[in-house]
Amino acid sequence: MKRYVIIVAGGKGLRMGGSLPKQFIPLAGKPVLMHTLEKFYSFSNDINIILVLPHDHQEFWKKLCDEHSFSVPHCIADGGETRFHSVRNGLSLVDTDDSVVAVHDGVRPFVSYDVIGRCFDMAAGGKAVVPVVDVVETLRKVGQDGLSVTVPRSSYRLVQTPQVFPASMLRKAYSCEYRTDFTDDASVVEAMGRKIDLAEGNRENIKITTPFDMIVAKAML
């Protein structure tokens, strides 16, 4: 069964406080995004990598690849108005329904091989798979009146990527109209009535979105 990963990298990096999109910020001498692509390619070089980038970022990305002699094979799809539209564009490059498709954030370079393998294996069995980790902090829910109440953290999980699905399932889900409550791929698949299965994630698999995240990323490397 063919395996694909759609790596979505359409962020503007506004929370980083600079003009350089977060996926291009250098980490240990090369852009964060390169670390992410290398993680999947080093896991298995038979995974078909589809990188989704805004059209006006693509020339800059090609320049970075030349500068860093970056040779991980990948094809590029145009980013869309929202993450939903970007993933849909990436799906157009998946050439067979007899495959499994992962969708991964371009700024999550620390996903473990165990998590990648576990999610692909579960999806190959027909499941819609989302990696999660336990909530370790106490949670309080804030109401519209400003009052808050403690909620049981055992009832909640933190969601990560890659989220992995049979290609036919994901393609059918993304044939629907966009909704503002589509915050990830699982929410799109869930909207057509499919059950979501949870897989154990890895806590190091952070999404690099703030300057503090970069400090943590440098420490982990």
How are the SSEs placed, and which strands pair?
Blueprint: E1 2-8, E2 26-27, E3 30-31, H1 32-43, E4 48-53, H2 55-67, E5 75-78, H3 83-91, E6 99-105, H4 113-124, E7 128-134, E8 139-142, E9 148-151, E10 157-159, E11 163-166, H5 167-173, H6 185-190, E12 196-200, H7 211-220
Parallel strand pairs: 1-4, 1-6, 4-5, 7-12
Antiparallel strand pairs: 2-3, 6-11, 7-10, 8-9
Secondary-structure class: alpha/beta
Largest sheet: 5 strands, mixed
Question: What low-confidence regions span 5 or more consecutive residues with pLDDT below 50?
Answer: 13-17
Q: How far do the termini sit from each other?
A: 33 Å
Write the H/E string, N to C: EEEHEHEHEHEEEEEHHEH
Order of adjacent strands in the largest pleated sheet = 5-4-1-6-11
Query: Taking all residues together, what is the mean pLDDT?
Result: 94
Please give a quick description of this structure.
By secondary structure, this protein is an alpha/beta fold.
Could you please describe the fold and organization of this structure?
- This protein has seven helices and twelve strands.
- A hairpin with a 2-residue loop joins strand 2 (26-27) and strand 3 (30-31).
- Mean pLDDT is 94; it is low at 13-17.
- It has a five-stranded mixed β-sheet, with helices on both faces. The chain has a three-stranded mixed β-sheet with strand order 10-7-12.
- The protein is globular.
- It has helices at residues 32-43, 55-67, 83-91, 113-124, 167-173, 185-190, 211-220; strands spanning 2-8, 26-27, 30-31, 48-53, 75-78, 99-105, 128-134, 139-142, 148-151, 157-159, 163-166, 196-200.
- The chain is 31% helix and 25% strand.
- The relative contact order is 0.18.
- It starts with a strand and ends with a helix.
- The chain is an alpha/beta fold.
